[in-house]
Amino acid sequence: MNNQTLFIFELPILYDIFKEIEEHLNFKITSFTKKEILNAQFKDHDHFLVLSDKKHSNLPNLILVDNSPIKLTKLLEKINVEFLKKNFIKQSNINVGEYIININSREMILENQKLKLTEKEIDTIIFLSKNKLPTRVHELQEKVWGYQSKLETHTVETHIHRLRKKIKEKFFDDNLIISKKNGYQISKKK
Fold first, then answer.
1. pLDDT for 17-63, tens place per residue?
2. What is the pTM for the complete model shown?
3. How many of the other CB atoms lie within 10 Å of CB of 9?
4. Beta-sheet strands, E only, within the chain
5. In CATH, what is the architecture of 97-186?
6. CA distance readout (Å), 7 to 33, 120, 138, 190
7. What is the CATH topology of the domain spanning 4-93?
């Protein structure tokens, strides 16, 4: 069983049905009847959905179950699809300093501003952000561009120069990617 949780809000019969088949589900089941308790529990869960038969504006990740009869298989399918959507969205955003890098839309985001990036630019930023120490040019050539020869090439330097220029023009930040004596590194602060 993984770390996904389905909160069933004020639907005791549905909770009982899900509890009976819980060992066959890919999420945990929890039932609540009071909003205050439910809201307090959200902070302890990364991946959760709330199932209810009433619309509640203050409940996040809500799946509404209307009063009409619904097949259990259809409901389970709907729940699983919603979990997949949540996971997909979460996995597509990577935090790099103050920025969010959206892999799917290929955008770098700071507050309400977005900067379109190329796939290599995103790969470069993500690769640099994962390394605590400066990354040498030949390592970027090999890991990001796939160059394994010892040919003299300025591909990395050119791309990083252009990337820095784009970031500076959009976000007025010329310190995200810094040059060190032994390579490139993502700055710890803006």
1. 999 999 999 898 988 877 655 555 666 666 888 888 888 777 778 88
2. 0.58
3. 22
4. 4-9, 28-32, 47-52, 62-64, 93-96, 99-102, 107-110, 113-116, 177-180, 183-186
5. Orthogonal Bundle (1.10)
6. 10, 40, 50, 39
7. Rossmann fold (3.40.50)
